[in-house]
Every structure is written in structure tokens, then in C-alpha cells.
Amino acid sequence: MKKISQALLFLLINISAYACADQLKTHKGDMFTGLLISFVDGICIFQSDYGATLKIPTSDIYGLDLQTSKEIHLTNGDRITGVIQHQGSQQLVSSSALGKIQLKMADILRITPVVAENKEPANKAVGKSEHVQSIGGNSQDTPPLDFLTGSTVMLASGKFELELGLSYKHSRTAYPLTSSGYFQQSAYTARSLTFDLAGRLGVGDGAEIWANIPLDYTYVQQVSTNQYVRDKQAVQVGDVSFGVDYLLTKENENTPALTFNLAASAPSGKNHYYPIQDMWMDPFSNGAGHWSISTGLSFVRTTDPAILFGGVSYRHFFPRRIDGYMIRPGDEFSGYFGVGFAINERLSVGTRLSHAYQANMVADGEKIYGSDKSPMDLSIFSSYRANKNWTITPQVTFGLNDDAGKPIVSIRGKRTF
């Protein structure tokens, strides 16, 4: 399994296909992909491919590659109409009237749209759109950047997303019991199927509110011998969670986009602390059993051809009496880091590494040493825009240690209104 996850990760990072869009490179080595909005009065306004608008001094720009013909105003008063591309330390303008002309960035005073554009740009790829992802966008011409959900604000005010998710987890252990009979087995099987209903709404300028309701089906079977088999199944609601994401700063040349995250979780799921003889039913505990509140900070940074994202968070659990004990789970600290690629207008891929630490629980005022957890997992996912309304996102999550548990396979469908 480890070799498979490494191979898939290697495949994602070495994908060479990439969507056609405007590109901007700075003297510091940063490269941004998206759409040039304006280039005038010493300031360049550039919209990155996930919606952040960058404001960059033109003196900091090393090169431009634009996908449509523009009118280029030079410092000497001349004007050239053509497609501009970066070539070494020069800017190459392909003009239908003047041919190819080499310029320096310092020679360019302004770049403005062409009033009447009747010809296709010289370097426009067949089948590629000049539009890129923007906040609140749901066009077939924009890449589905679902891996950024929760890391930045993606929806404009009034936009609503409905998401349906289905995930499956399976664990099994078995060994023969030769002392009880030649064919006798001891086995333990646990299967869990979770259906998630989630909604996300853009509110105000740079904020989203969201909520998630999970429904779990769990089946557990314990086999000691053919004469002693017990099983149980249940359908129950998991912990309902809700929160808000607020965009603190938009991405610019020097800093990433920063988002403040605030969330809460209600103990609508079930949690039990079983005695030893009933521990086989532990998978039916499908919730924390406590109210909790969490806060965090996440970032997104465009560095062509990839989009980097990550974040850190802190989660506090409130005490509650369960099975006769006053329980307070330990506080949790977590973080994640990921990289995603917008392959084209319909497909994106990415991977994310997550790690958390939860401190020891306290039962009836006594700290229970050894109850702390430190799960680490790796997720690999892709998003495909099936049509103008629906985006499909399959995902596989591999637990990298015992605390993380077994692999989880999931698929989500999202519709934007």
C-alpha cells in the first residue's frame, strides 16, 4: 500500500499537462497563472487562477505571456498591437502588421485591450479557453479547484454549493484456530459507509458559511468459531459540524492568501466507552460525544504550475458525562499541507499531508496517560467537471500510522447555484 501511495504521489507531481492562460513572472522567481486585468501607471493587476487578485508594481515584473492580442503602449510614444510573449530577457510581440518585435519590460508603458479583435491570437491553443477560475465561478471554462475548499474563500456573495459525499472504510483481521478444528477461523470485520450532506454559502465580501451532516451505516462481525458468531449493524447520524471561513488578505506578490477558520461540532453522533468484553462494538462510536469548537488559519499560494495550500488549527472539547463518567477529551492541534494542479478547464489533481496531536483525556478528574493520539494521513484526489452544474471528486486517504486507521475511499459530487 505504501508503494502504491508513493507511486500515485509521484505521478501527480510530475504531470506535464497544464491549462492555457496568461502567465506573469517576477524578478524574485514567482510565477503566476491567470488573467491580466490591467497594466497601467506602474501597477499591474493580475487575477490568479483560483480567484485572488494580485497588485504588482510593473518594475517587479520579469516577463509576461499573454494569450490574447493587446495594444502595447511604449515609453517612446509608439503603439503595437499583437500577442506578447516572454523570451529570455526580452519580450517578443507577434504583430500581424509589423511581424515579430523584441522589447524590454522597461520599454512598455501600458497594455490595454484591443477595441476590435477579429483574429485569433497567434499562440492560442485549439480548444483552450482564455477564461480562468474566479471566486464564485462555475463555468465549464474554469478549472475545478475543489482541493482549495476550506483553505480559502471560493464563493462570491449569494453563491451556494450543495455537496453530496460517500465514503467507505473496511478493516478485517483473521487467523486460523487449529486447536478448535481444522477449518475453524477467528475473524473480526468492520465496515463503515458514510453519506455526507454539506452546504456552503458565500456571504458578504470574502466570507463563507458552511454546515455538514453525516449519516453512517456500520456493520461489525466477530467470529471466534463457527459456534460463536455475533454481529451487529446500525444506521445513525454522526456529529453535525458548521463554521465560517473569512478571507483576511488576498494573495499578492509577497504574501499568500490568508483565511481565518472558525468551526463547531455538536455531539449528535454516538460515543461509548465499552468494557473489555464489548470492545468489538467500538466502531459504532461515530462521534466525539462532546461539543467542540475549533479555530485556525489557512493559506493559499500560487507558484506556477502548482497551487500550494495548508493550514493549522486548534480544537477544544467541552466535558460531558458519558456512561457514568465525566469525560473531557484532550485538546487537539492539527496541520496540513498540500499541492494541487489545474490540469485544464475540466480536471484538477492534488495531494495533501495531514497530521494532528490530541492530548490525553481526563476521566472523573484524572488524566488517563496513554490515551493521546497522533494520526497522520496522506490524501490523493482529483476533481472533474462533468458538466456546467456538477463537479465530481474521488479521493483516497491512506493512514500513515496506527492512529490514523485504515484507508478510506470516497467520492463527492458538488453543485453550485
Explained architecture:
The protein is an all-beta fold and about 425 residues long. It is built from one helix and 27 strands. Helix content is about 5%, strand content about 55%. The strands form four sheets. A twelve-stranded antiparallel barrel has the order 11-12-13-15-16-17-18-21-22-25-26-27. The longest helix has 12 residues, at about 1-15.
Element order: H for helix, E for strand = HEEEEEEEEEEEEEEEEEEEEEEEEEEE
In round numbers, the mean pLDDT is: 84
Task: State the total count of DSSP E strands.
Answer: 27
- Strand fraction band? over 45%
Quaternary state, please?
single chain
User: Strands across the major sheet, in which order?
Assistant: 11-12-13-15-16-17-18-21-22-25-26-27
Helix count equals: 1
Principal-axes shape call? elongated
How far apart the termini lie comes to: 39 Å
Question: Any low-confidence stretches, pLDDT <50, length ≥5?
Answer: 9-19, 117-138
